[in-house]
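Quick one: structure tokens for this chain, please?
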Amino acid sequence: MFPTMLSHFAEATCNKESFFAFPTWYKYLPTSTDARSNCVPVIKGITDIWLIVAAIVDILLRVAALVAVFFIVYAGVQFIMAQGEPDKTAKARSTILDAVVGLVIAVMAAALVSFVAGRFVAVP
């Protein structure tokens, strides 16, 4: 039973997803496991730097999406706190609209980066 648990743990460490489902910096690189069952990225050449850059851009776009969600919640609270004052409600609506546009752009850009970088992943 114990070796089975270890093998499941080893598979989980090479998942290439980290905290809050953010990708790791080596998401698009081929990996192998070392003697301690740790996931080790394999860099085969200088061209693999673009795969690392794509993973970092993917992480930053996911952070941007989280920031946009935060601004949507913040503007919603501002809208509620406006209590019907036209200037404050207009400002809150504008913030919500801007944040939704930012969220859509961030999600579409993250999907595009993931699609393009996924096409350049080397098959081990």
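Residues 1-12 have pLDDT under 50 and may be disordered.
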